[in-house]
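QA checklist item 7 of 12: single-chain prediction sanity check.
[x] sequence parsed
[x] length recorded as 431
[x] structure emitted
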Amino acid sequence: MSAHSPVRATPSHIMRTHPSSLPIRRMASLAVCVLACLGSSPLQAAYWNQNQSQTQSQNRDLDGDGIPNIVDPDIDGDGIPNMVDSNVDGGIALTGPYAGQYLGDHIDNDNPTEEDIDDDGLSDVSLAEKDIDGDSRNDDDPTETDIDGDGRSNNNSADIDIDGDGLRNDDPSDDDDDGDDIDDLDDDDDNNDGVKDIDDDGHHPEAEEGEVKVELSPEPSAPAESSVDLTLQHYGTGAIKCVIDARDLDVGSYDFIVNGVIRGTLAVTQESSHTRGLLVFKSTGSSGSILLDFPIAEQNVSIRQGITDFFTGTAPVLPGPGEGDDTITLFKGPNAPSGSQAEVSMHFGANGPATLEVQIEDVAAGDYTLLVGDAVRGTIHVTGVPGDTEGELHFETGGNPPLDFPCAGQSIAITRDGATYFFGQLPTAAP
């Protein structure tokens, strides 16, 4: 070593032999050891990258075949095309400089810990990531039927995480189910399955999307046990859907009338031991529905055959745009102990109630029945010791239990063994 040569101290536990002087087989063994130390982290993919100095760029080339991952049809060189590879950035390379070696990670595309499915240096949740699974199909192009490349089509109910971001589609914090950079509230096809949300029976509503249902009143001519429900659904995009569901009416055709004007024909047919008729209106118009191009909310409606009305009523108020929270204290019934109390908290999204939470305190431990609009909606389990008991029940749109029933402005009661402990009326909107 000359007097002018720089001196670099090397810790005793670091091998001093330059890697270039090692046989290729030993280099591979060393790399495997390092990889094992790294465990199952996505950092494995970065380690194997041929151009490690560019690990955060889109010029990464996992299999070293000279084709950057971002345009490589087989990123890991395992002979399985990206679009059908359940682990795009992990497999045994068949050709190239790493032939016979396992490249990348061992994390499947649909594993929540997989943060960069195609190993292009862009996080799967990054706004700049337009092709999550690296199959050369843009995630917001209708031809992309499997956004995260997990082998399940976007419209498969078993695919609970369509865009592979580690968040379930029904997770309130996932506001972009298909990863196309359009918030679900503004996206008319949340799961990018080619079926508009308003036409998609499997559509998962967002917290701010509203649904309200009313039962029309039977007239003397209506058969016993027959019923007609009118449901209004309001989507984040502003689209409106109206469904008339008739059950156990006599087989035949009935007029659906809104403010004296016939708007559609309800065909009731036999279904096994019952009869049923469905009439669907959509503001966007589509196959199997009638264009909803007339006012429906708060309008007088009837189900009529000839000159005879079978059901009448008023369509509900369309879930409103007011957002915010409101909390009320329920009135005590004669059975409520001294010092006990019950509160109801509601969150209103852009299109109606999004959450409903009921809490009761200082009553005897046990199960209490919750009624909303005179219908049983759940059981509140109260636990604790005398003088310090509590119980609560939380409903949320898309949650468990789901807030899938009308609640704004409805009566509410908490009972036990037929006795009323608390009662009141829910707010109609945020204050």
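[x] summary fact logged: Residues 344 and 358 are 5 Å apart (CA to CA).
[ ] second reviewer sign-off
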